[in-house]
Amino acid sequence: MYTATIDAPIEYLKGVGPMRADLLKKELGIYTYGQLLHYYPFRYIDRTRFYKISELHPDLPLVQIVGRITGKEVIGEKHKKRIVARFSDDSGTIELVWFQSLKWVDDNVERGKVYIAFGKPNIFNGQFSISHPELETYPRPQTVTGNLTLQPIYNSTEKLKKRFLDSKGIQQLQRAILEQHVKEIPENMPAYILEKYRLLSKREAMLNIHFPSSASALQNAQRRL
């Protein structure tokens, strides 16, 4: 019997299971929900800025663009097979390219739908493209963890990445815990201390360390934790 859900073994979290749990234990020393929640991001990427396609240049690190999938086709065969989608806004068109997970892309990336594309712009044959972009429907749905304005980046390892537990995979696990179990995070400071020093509650701090609603919310979470 566990005193709270956050004491539960990590293998019980949806999306983990025995094999991923074994890796989390060996690679990061994470055995429980609570230990995963205390595995904080080491940096954040600003997701408040949206670029127009006409503003892109190859020196930009990571960008996000709102646009529409205007076409999608499979190119090449066998190991050279890839999916190329045309992605347009009111200023131009770029290509989104996938070399892996082609069935998922074919089934889920829809022509005519508006997405937020996030990734590194590159030039190939004189055309801007983004390989393996992150795609979100637009507008973003509101959840308990808020809209992602500062994207958390987590340390991972090669063994974890092979099991799709890269930074994005760890982020998804953090979101699952917080959306399902945030109310079960126990407070460990007296109310008078919180009031005297104007500190966030433990729950608010955990939400904003992983999914900050703003830069100031992140600072307050870091101060509390």
Structure commentary:
This protein is α+β, with helices and mostly antiparallel strands and 225 residues long. It has helices at 17-28, 33-37, 102-108, 158-162, 167-181, 191-196, 202-210, 215-224, and strands at 43-46, 63-75, 82-89, 92-98, 114-119, 121-124, 127-131, 134-137, 150-153. The protein has a seven-stranded mixed sheet. A two-stranded antiparallel sheet has the order 1-9. A hairpin with a 6-residue loop joins strand 2 (63-75) and strand 3. Helix 7 (202-210) packs across helix 8 (215-224). It is globular, with a radius of gyration of 20 Å. The mean pLDDT is 90.
How would you sum up this structure in a few lines?
The chain is 31% helix and 24% strand.
Q: What is the molecular shape?
A: globular
Low-confidence segments, given as residue ranges, are none
Cα-atom radius of gyration:
20 Å
Sheet-strand content, in percent, reads 15-25%
Query: End-to-end span in angstroms?
Result: 27 Å
How do the SSEs run, as a string of H and E?
Answer: HHEEEEHEEEEEHHHHH
Q: Helical region count? A: 8
Tell me the strand order in the biggest sheet.
6-7-4-3-2-5-8
Kindly report the average pLDDT value: 90
According to DSSP, the number of beta strands is 9
Q: Helical percent range?
A: 25-40%
The chain-level structural class is alpha+beta
Main β-sheet description: 7 strands, mixed
Please name the defining characteristics of this protein:
225 residues; alpha+beta; seven-stranded mixed β-sheet; two-stranded antiparallel ribbon; 8 helices; globular
Ordered list of secondary-structure elements with their pairings:
Layout: H1 17-28, H2 33-37, E1 43-46, E2 63-75, E3 82-89, E4 92-98, H3 102-108, E5 114-119, E6 121-124, E7 127-131, E8 134-137, E9 150-153, H4 158-162, H5 167-181, H6 191-196, H7 202-210, H8 215-224
Parallel strand pairs: 4-7
Antiparallel strand pairs: 1-9, 2-3, 2-5, 3-4, 5-8, 6-7
Helix pairs in contact: 7-8
